[in-house]
Amino acid sequence: MSSQSTKRKPRSPLAVEQVGRVPQQGRSKASYERMFAAARTLMLERGDEEFTLIEVSQRGNVSIGSIYLRFESKDNLVRAVICEALEEIVSAEEAMFERLADEARDLGEFVPRYVNDYAEVLRVNAPLLRLAMRRAAFDPLISAPGKQVADRSAAGANRAMLRFSAEIGGDAALKADSVYHIIFATLARELSLGSTAESARNYDWEPLKRELARMCLAYLRQQP
Amino acid sequence: MSSQSTKRKPRSPLAVEQVGRVPQQGRSKASYERMFAAARTLMLERGDEEFTLIEVSQRGNVSIGSIYLRFESKDNLVRAVICEALEEIVSAEEAMFERLADEARDLGEFVPRYVNDYAEVLRVNAPLLRLAMRRAAFDPLISAPGKQVADRSAAGANRAMLRFSAEIGGDAALKADSVYHIIFATLARELSLGSTAESARNYDWEPLKRELARMCLAYLRQQP
Amino acid sequence: MSSQSTKRKPRSPLAVEQVGRVPQQGRSKASYERMFAAARTLMLERGDEEFTLIEVSQRGNVSIGSIYLRFESKDNLVRAVICEALEEIVSAEEAMFERLADEARDLGEFVPRYVNDYAEVLRVNAPLLRLAMRRAAFDPLISAPGKQVADRSAAGANRAMLRFSAEIGGDAALKADSVYHIIFATLARELSLGSTAESARNYDWEPLKRELARMCLAYLRQQP
Amino acid sequence: MSSQSTKRKPRSPLAVEQVGRVPQQGRSKASYERMFAAARTLMLERGDEEFTLIEVSQRGNVSIGSIYLRFESKDNLVRAVICEALEEIVSAEEAMFERLADEARDLGEFVPRYVNDYAEVLRVNAPLLRLAMRRAAFDPLISAPGKQVADRSAAGANRAMLRFSAEIGGDAALKADSVYHIIFATLARELSLGSTAESARNYDWEPLKRELARMCLAYLRQQP
DNA sequence: TATGAATGAGTATTCATTCAT
DNA sequence: GATGAATGAATACTCATTCAT
Questions:
Q1: CA distance to C105, C109, C114, C119, C156, per residue, from C96 (Å)
Q2: For this UniProt entry, which residues form the secretion signal (chains A, B, C, D) (predicted)?
């Protein structure tokens, strides 16, 4: 009703906000940003738990107490960093789907572009996404929003593909869903989302994406 | 086949041996087995580092000192357990390929069976494989043998598929390799071999395998 | 009796006032009351130090700074609450002695009534009295007024008993003083005023009071 | 049956032993003694929790880890010290009762001696007994053995008095029990067992004991 | 060989108090 | 007067590794 609800974009489509309150005022905000950034940097350098609050305090130039003023625990600080990354991914995907909707006129155009663009979204966010997935394995406060992100992703991809259902032979919904899973699994693996053994991939990234798209297209178009 | 296989049983096709010496004699061997088994059990219960050498000592009924006599460090003990699991996987895969060679007469028979059987091999070994992949992300002494296992796996799959290269349209080698990667990625993801966020998968396992096989077949058979 | 009692209501017969200034005006006073009440409640719930000024600030709806404006420290806030309780005890005892003076006509009437009524006064104030005694063990700012309360108590009891000195055999003053000490010690113990090990007393309260009175009477009346 | 059960005095009549294992061998034992003594000293200097494990480690010349080898936690270390004190009190009381049994021929001899001797037992052990009683207020692992000690004490005193029941007028058992409670309460209070406000007692100790004994005797002998 | 007691560095968290606004 | 965000010192506990016996 008020101006509030009309102007603002709905912050966080994820149920993620509860972890750490963002202060709104100037100095406060700045100190919040510093500790958040310090934590983020350290997490990227070392892994999601391999850092000390003392380090955050020193790098971020904030007192230990300040950290506890915003985040109830080290865990919550870690979660906040991860959740922010999840939100960024959601935004990036949304932008990607909008772009694809304009550009792709048929399945043959859509699939390769989707594979490429989605790969790019994941690649850009891979470092924190890796931490997110690792942590989701044991932390429900990460697996829940993580699941949301994954579901959105799947839903977006399915919706996009089903715009071309006329081109799809057989059970279009089933095929689209399978395609999404296989694409995500392949890209995730290539980006070592899930910390794989062969992290230093020597298999070529570009050919894989191309063949992956071909495979999906062949499958989608195939009549039963 | 090689001279290697005639003289002694081919212990560890992997370059893994440096990690912990297996004593050949009775009492020593028994105590080695006990500490190894205790560590393996604890790793499966809690994760690859979430146990204490004291716990190994108690459960395995061996002294702390004994453990250090066989394994230079806790890390090496963990590595030994993981490497043994990798070897088991290699064996299981070899058995699988032999079986498939007898049973599958054409690509249409081979691909679905391979997907199924490989899925089973991975599923059975998933718990330790998960630990292996997690650890490989930061421990070169695991990522190296892990890479070997992966390469063997890929090579085996490629070789098997190329027996039917006549049925494959276009660049058979490229396609086979792509297929292998995509199958592995999809199965690995489904088994959470990389600790994914959506660990409690609600997507159906059986349909995915079926569609995965269809996709691969459609792709392989497709003429350029 | 004295000039003191005519001009103003005898606020605090104890040398306790230094601890926290009570503001006289409306809003200020109200906020003082709220923080005081919040502290008192928390102390009764958790013990005299087991609460946080942040909790006082939240429950009492006052800012941390306000608390420091009235009380120089957390310790002083605690002291203020305890001292108020001591004053209440003094009032209750004075009322009790006035009542007893009217009702008790001889030693045989006085002693049992005194034991009963004093027990009641202590019982009602036991929760904060317990905190007072605990703290007096190490805080001179509590032990001093605590001593005053105890001395008043002893003096009142002695004075009352000595009204019946004709009935007392031998050194009436010594006997009265001894009786007071023994009565207080026994009641205090029974009320766990001093945090005793056997806090859940199973010994019966009523018989003890009766026998305690008998013991005191037998002693007081006994000729040397 | 074995020599074990005949030679050894039954260690710890209290169910207290579970808190911290006493090592039996030389060097181990010595280090145990050092950390125990250091903790005891610190507790007497500062109170039962007002010390740091680092201090124990330094004063006792043992590593922090060693402390945790014997005591699972700081709390358990504190408990062990307190429990040992409780056991000493039990021994001292037993010795006292044996002595009194030989010396006291009638109630008139027994009561004053008992008051004196019991006062001495409590006085000697007062410092740790104070800590014991304080802690018993919130720690069941102390209140339980504390209750045992108190019950033994009461039972011993009752038994001793009832040897002279012929001299006691009326309900001897009730009177004896009342006398015990009142004596203990009075002595405990005088020794500030329970951290009293007037810790620096100026009332005379000796007269109180004398009058306390008189009071009890007058009461016990009084015919109903 | 085998033992297992001893070591001690390393870290998340709390909360009374201050002081810029 | 009033506020409440910021401070930072202080402390129990873990566990891989060593080495005297």
A1: 15, 14, 8, 11, 10
A2: none
Please report, rounded to a whole number, the percentage of residues in chain D having pLDDT higher than 90: 75
Which CATH fold topology does D82-221 show?
A: Tetracycline Repressor; domain 2 (1.10.357)
Give the mean pLDDT of D174-178: 96
Is the pLDDT confidence value at A21 over 90?
no
User: Which nucleotide in the DNA or RNA is closest to residue B52, CA to C1'?
Assistant: F15
Q: How far apart are CA D130 and CA D76, in angstroms?
A: 18
Mean pLDDT of A90-108: 96
Contacting partners of chain C (3+ CB pairs under 8 A): D
Rounded Cα distance between A177 and A166, Å, is 16
HSE (CB half, 13 Å, CA atoms) of C184?
23
Report the candidate in A125, A154, A113 with the shortest Cα–Cα distance to residue A44: A125
φ/ψ of B56, rounded to 5, equals -60, -45
Collect the ranges in chain B with pLDDT lower than 50. Answer: 1-13, 15-17, 195-200, 202
**Biggest alpha carbon distance in chain B?**
64
Single-letter amino acid code for the residue at C131: L
On the question of pLDDT at D202 being above 90, the answer is no
Burial of A86 (0-12, 13-18, 19+ CB in 10 A): buried
Contact B111, B169 (CB under 8 A): no
Contacts of C189 in chain D (CB under 8 A): 181, 184-185, 188-189, 194
pLDDT bin (cut points 50, 70, 90) of residue C137 is confident
Q: What's the pLDDT at C97? A: 97
Evaluated on CA atoms A178, A180, A185, A190, the torsion sign reads positive
Q: Which chain A residue has the Cα nearest residue B142? A: A197
| CATH class entry, domain D9-75 | mainly alpha
CA A187 to centroid of chain Cα atoms: 13
Parse chain A into domains and list their residue ranges. 10-75, 83-221
Of residues B174, B166, B158, the one with CA closest to residue B106? B166
Q: Which fold has domain A83-221?
A: Tetracycline Repressor; domain 2 (1.10.357)
Q: Does domain B85-221 have CATH number 1.10.3880.10?
A: no
Please tell me the CATH code under which domain C17-72 is placed: 1.10.10.60
What fold is seen in the domain B11-75? Answer: Arc Repressor Mutant, subunit A (1.10.10)
* A200: chain B residues, CB-CB within 8 Å: 143
pTM of the entire structure?
0.85
Q: What are the residues whose beta carbons fall under 8 Å from the beta carbon of B202, sequence distance 6 or more?
A: none
Count CB pairs under 8 A between chains C and D.
141
